[in-house]
Amino acid sequence: MPKGEGKLIAQNKKARHDYTIEETYEAGLVLQGTEIKAIRAGRVNLKDSFARIRNGEVFVHNMHISPYEQGNRYNHEPLRTRKLLLHKKQISKLIGDTKEAGYSLVPLKLYIKNGVAKLLIGLAKGKKKYDKREDLKRKEANRSIQRELAQRQKGMY
Question: What one-character-per-residue DSSP string does the chain give?
């Protein structure tokens, strides 16, 4: 199964709007207690999350996994920092890439693949305001073209 495929749990839609994604990496997550049950229930928010490299390891910060309802005292802390599982070569490449100005690691998707929770992180460069406006104009133009084509298709039949 290619990376980024599986049962989609959560997606960071704002990331592709705010950043230009250069490369993507599929990472496993180190979870504890009831976190996987909450993930399977879809109680995850990636909106303000980001990833950092510290001591040769990658961690995701501000990823909100809501407490599991039946978790009682074994429940987890919702905003704790979670370790990401990547190959050493991938981490060393990410270290080199993030040292360049303007690059950061942004979580894009959380999904379940072969029964395991995976996080798709992207090496991202921040967009300027005019880039965002340009993208919106391009999307709107494509939408109007598709609309026109659909109208012409209906007229032909």
Answer: --TT-SEEEEE-HHHHHHEEEEEEEEEEE---TTHHHHHHTT-EE-TT-EEEEETTEEEEES-EEPPPGGGGGGPPPTT--EEEE--HHHHHHHHHHHHSTTEEEEEEEEEEETTEEEEEEEEEEEPPHHHHHHHHHHHHHHHHHHHHHHHHHHHH-
